[in-house]
Amino acid sequence: MSDSNCAGSLPISTITGDPVARVPADATIADVARAMVTCDVGAIAVGDDALPTALVSERDIVRAVAAGRNPATAPVSAVASTKLVWCDADATVDQVGARMMDRYIRHVLVERDGALLGIVSARDLLGVYADSDS
């Protein structure tokens, strides 16, 4: 088995470490952009519910600005995705990567026992595979 195959068989929970960044449901796009910079993340859960119902990414913000929305007044709810993609904490890195490719997305929410454990990005997966080649 090659190193990359070993990396791909790791449970996704092994790379889900930081607490999930969140913004309140009434946040503006500018609020989200500031939170992304402060938390150094590319996606943020919207709302305070245990399981979020929306997620906003850097791309969502760029699209909103390109469309002429005023970030200081436009609500994040106008641009956040409600079609969330989840995986179980025991899913492998390879399985989550395949799900990202199938859905053409960059972020997957990770849950364990019905609770949000973290958000995994395509960059996180790339880091796992890059480290396995070192």
Automatic annotation (TrEMBL):
One Pfam family per UniProt: CBS
Domain CBS: 80-134
Keyword field contains Transferase: yes
Assigned keywords, A-Z: CBS domain, Kinase, Transferase
Domain of life of the source: Bacteria
InterPro entries, sorted: CBS_dom (IPR000644), CBS_dom_sf (IPR046342), Diverse_CBS-Domain (IPR051257)
GO molecular function list: kinase activity
PANTHER family associated with the record: CBS DOMAIN-CONTAINING PROTEIN, CBS DOMAIN-CONTAINING PROTEIN CBSX3, MITOCHONDRIAL
Protein name (database record): Histidine kinase
Species this chain originates from: Mycobacterium paraseoulense
